[in-house]
Design brief:
- By secondary structure, the chain is an alpha/beta fold.
- The N and C termini lie far apart (129 Å).
- It has one domain: 3-Layer(aba) Sandwich (Trna Endonuclease, Chain: A, domain 1).
- It has 5 helices and 6 strands, in the order ααβββααβαββ.
- It has a 6-stranded mixed beta sheet with strand order 1-2-3-4-5-6, sandwiched between helices.
Length: 219
């Protein structure tokens, strides 16, 4: 038989108004309290802060690595530019030494040559080699690898040669030539079609590769 006290307790437990009371029959055992949720939040936040700190440290290391890479790349580029410049000068010297001979083979006697002559305009265009013979001068552009853009740029320079180099303005004939070791995209054929001598540097010498009977354009 159920006592009155037990009956009251039973009714209280069944009462919807008391289901959320501590110890009520509808409250899951071990349910989360605000304090527990707050502690969990703090722990999660701490872990996020640690993760963010490690990420920042990793990012810093990557930045340092990237900086070292850029510095190394800069040094490599500088060394390559120096090598290219020195190699270009070597090719120029080779071509200049053979220029009187190869020009004479085409009926042009070279009296003197001038290297790296700069124009008088504010842009300061440079002409690699100028070979002079009385009233004729041959302007030579030297490239280790001749490309289409090189030919176009050189043709532009030749059109303004008399203007930019007034000491040669009175010459009766101004001819152009490109000298190279290698060619890209048939640049030598392009140069020839535009009336330029094509001189190939091979080994210890250079030679004109235009066919016999080639007539150079006068600029």
């Amino acid at each position: 038989m159920t006592s009155g006290k037990d009956k009251d307790k039973y009714n209280k437990d069944r009462d919807p108004d008391h289901v959320n009371d501590p110890g009520g029959i509808y409250q899951p055992q071990g349910s989360l309290s605000f304090e527990k949720v707050w502690l969990m939040f703090q722990e999660t936040d701490r872990k996020w802060q640690e993760t963010d700190k490690r990420f920042q440290e990793s990012d810093k290391k990557w930045q340092e690595t990237d900086k070292r890479f850029l510095e190394t790349n800069k040094k490599i580029t500088k060394a390559f530019d120096l090598f290219t410049s020195q190699w270009g000068r070597l090719v120029e010297s080779l071509v200049e030494g053979d220029l009187p001979r190869v020009m004479q083979e085409r009926g042009i006697v070279v009296k003197r040559t001038v290297e790296r002559a700069k124009s008088d305009d504010e842009k300061g265009y440079e002409f690699d080699i100028i070979a002079v013979n009385g009233d004729v001068c041959v302007v030579v552009e030297v490239k280790t690898t001749l490309r289409p853009d090189d030919v176009n740029d050189f043709l532009h320079k030749l059109k303004h040669f008399r203007e930019w180099m007034p000491e040669y303005a009175g010459k009766d004939r101004v001819l152009g030539a490109v000298a190279y070791i290698r060619v890209h995209s048939n640049s030598d054929k392009m140069a020839e079609k535009n009336g330029l001598f094509t001189i190939r540097a091979t080994g210890k010498s250079a030679r004109i590769v235009n066919p016999e009977g080639f007539e150079p354009k006068e600029f």
